[in-house]
Amino acid sequence: MDAFFAIPPGDVAELRRREEVIRELKEIEGRLRSLSKDPYPSQWLIDHAKQDGGVFNLLEDLREAIFHYQMVRRTRIDDQAFKLVNPAESDILGKLRYARDAEYRHGDRGNCLRGTRRTILDEIEFWTRDPRRPPVYWLNGLAGTGKSTIAQTIAERTFADGQLGASFFCSRDFEDRRNIRFIFPTIAVQLARRRAEFRSIFVPLVRSDPDIIHESLYGQMDKLLVQPLLKSAISTVIVIDALDECEDDEPTSAILSVLGRFVNQIPKVKFFVTGRPEPRIRHGFRLPLLAKATDVFELHEVEPDQIMSDMQLFYKHNCSEIKSRHHGLDDWPAEEQLNQLCERAAGLFIYAMATVRFINQNSKNPKKQLDRLIQSQESGFEGRTKLKANTTLDSLYMSILREAFSDDDPEDDLKLRSVLGAVILAANPLSPSAIAALLDFDPGDVFPLLSSVNSLLVLSKIDQPVRPFHKSFPDFIIDPDRCTNPRFRVHPPDQHTELLVGCLKLMNRRLERNMCGLPDGVTNAEVKDLKQRTERHVCRALEYACRSWHKHLKDTRPFQKLEITRVLHRFLEEKFLFWLEVLSVLGATREAVDALEATEKWLDVSRTLDLTRDYFRFVVAFFSVINTSAPHIYVSALPLSPRMSIVRELYKQYACPSAKIVQGLQDLWNPVYANRGFKRVAAWSPCNRFIAVASRPARATTSATIEILDAATLERLNIFNSPQALGDQRLGFSPDGRTLIQFDPEKFIRWDLQTGVPVSAVFSGRLVLARQSSFSFAYSTDGKTLAVSGASSQSLTTIDTYDLLSGTYTRSYHDPEARIVAPIWTHAECLRFVTVKPGSITMWEAPFLSVHTPAMIQSFPTPDEITDIEEAAQSKCGDFLFLPAFSQLAFKTQDTIFIWDAKDSRFLLKFVPIQNPWPHQGSSFSSDGRFFSHVDLYENIYVWKRSPTDYILHQVLPLHSTKPLLSPNGESIIAIARAALHLWHTRYHVHLPPREPKDEDGFDFLLEFSPNEVLAASVRFMGDTVTILDLQSGNPRLTIDTGMEVMCLGVTASTVAVAGGGKIINWNLPAENCANAMASVDDSVHTTVLACSNLAYSAERSISPDLTHIAVTERGNPYNLHIHSMSTGKRLVGTKVPDTLQWVILGGREVWCMDGKDYVRGWKIIQDGGSGIAGLEPLETTKCPPQVSPWQSRCGYEVTHDGWVLSPTQKRLLWLPQHWRELGEHTTWSGRILGLRHCELPEVVIIEFLE
Question: What stretches pass through the bilayer (predicted)?
Answer without folding.
Answer: none
